[in-house]
Amino acid sequence: MRVDVAVIGGGVTGLGVARDLAQRGVTVALFEKGDLASGTSGRSHGLLHSGARYAVKDPVSASECAQENRILKKIASHVIEDTGGMFVAVEESDLEYERVFLDGCKKSGVRVEELSIKESLSREPYLNPNVVATYLVDDAAIDPFRLALANFLDAKSNNAQIFTYTPVRLLVEQGEVTGVRLIKSGENVHADIVVNATGAWAGEVCRQAGIKLEVKPNKGTLVVVSKRIVNTVLNRLRPPSDGDILVPHQTTMILGTTSTYVRTPDNLLPTRKEIKLIVMEEEKLVPLVRRLRVIRAFSGARPLLEGGSGREAARTFLVIDHDESGVKGLITVTGGKLTTYRLMAEKTADLVCAKLGVRAPCSTDKEELPEVPVKSTLERYEALEGELRDGKEVVCECEMVTRSEVEKAFNVLAARTLGDVKRRTRMGMGECQAQMCAYRVADLMAESFGFGADEALNMLSDFLREQWKISRVLEGSQKAQTEFFKTMYRLAGSLDG
Ligand SMILES: Cc1cc2nc3c(=O)[nH]c(=O)nc-3n(C[C@H](O)[C@H](O)[C@H](O)COP(=O)(O)OP(=O)(O)OC[C@H]3O[C@@H](n4cnc5c(N)ncnc54)[C@H](O)[C@@H]3O)c2cc1C
Fold first, then answer.
1. Ligand 1 pocket, 337 CB below 6 A?
2. ipTM for the complex?
3. Which band of pLDDT confidence, cut at 50, 70 and 90, is reported for residue 463?
């Protein structure tokens, strides 16, 4: 196989690069070792930053976020819930940060507006009644999975080839990167340029060509609670710290986060201590959080580019032409944020096109991303009457996922496993955490998608094992529920996740 450009990494950045290049008529193949958005992109808070969070420490990143926030609200409105955001001072000591925060926002072009405490409490009745100052910003909730899928669909419609579950290594010949080698099949794919869009794994890929790139994986943990009791993104007004953001997502809320450097971005799991810390801190913003059920927690790795404390490191991005340090054929894009993925892709594609002599300009800031052919949970609830009237079969009651959406996940959105269906439809992301729907979808896989019974059972087992990994750090009724279902699956299906 031969292409103009091989992209490594199927997170939002790699998919954004594939989309941008394909729109400009470049032939692209993208290789992802797992599923789309199964790396950091699918483990984020899902906050479309206004830039305010970075306004003091990292004004460049703040301006980039502010600019991309406006663009994404235009081109990707269907994957965004425009909740607005608030920065909230909950203690008198938080007010020491108020002046630098407002100055930083002004200098970075981040819109901020003071809100009276009375108005904030009427807007968010569960907010801590003792708050001392509140400011409105342009934060929003963005669905990282649907964002990735929309980029995938657009890239495919412009003839990009996208391969999931295909880990690759750089193909290096006489000191030059000439393509990638597919690790499972041993096949070589030749390309004029390889784009390394592997986020926190970027240093690892660079090493394959003898390049030293300092990308330090920085672990962040997030906690999902079962009820949505606020409708605005809430941020603590203080220097960025642990447990100071709360994002309403569909029918849940995601609380976070933490920041610890780790050796590798692989297999990160939350600890009980992190979960407790996050809940304790978020309680200061919304006291009722303490009474909500923690249904899930997960961790991801930020691709940070500099040393110092994780909170000090810049959140801007780098596009590196390794030709400048003597290795032809390789460009790395890393760092940044989910919010700035499109800009990162644009700058990378500009560099690729300059090298290939392609003159077509970038149009991703104007062209809307395509609709994703499965609904969000909120859209499903809105359409609930219609769904029931049409007699559509619901396979996941918590998230109201229908059988036809599972079919689309397989037929249109390249799902291959139960985990892929979860990322595409939210099947299993609700209160019961897939205990009731996993076996139904496995059954569908055997019945309608040509999987053998044993294969479907193995997939169910793998999926449940992944779901249950978290049970050792859960507590209370969620732990009891998980243990109950584990026993049920063991007894009824001889399944041992
Ligand atoms: C806890 C946490 C919360 C965050 N919250 C937010 C937020 O709310 N808003 C925001 O804007 N940003 C947020 N971020 C940052 C944001 O998620 C990341 O910057 C962004 O998702 C990175 O996307 P990416 O595509 O560059 O990397 P990734 O999504 O990690 O994609 C890289 C991909 O490369 C693949 N890969 C690696 N090696 C290979 C190989 N050899 N072959 C094939 N594939 C390979 C990986 O499997 C992975 O899927 C958060 C980050 C963390 C950790």
1. yes
2. 0.99
3. very high
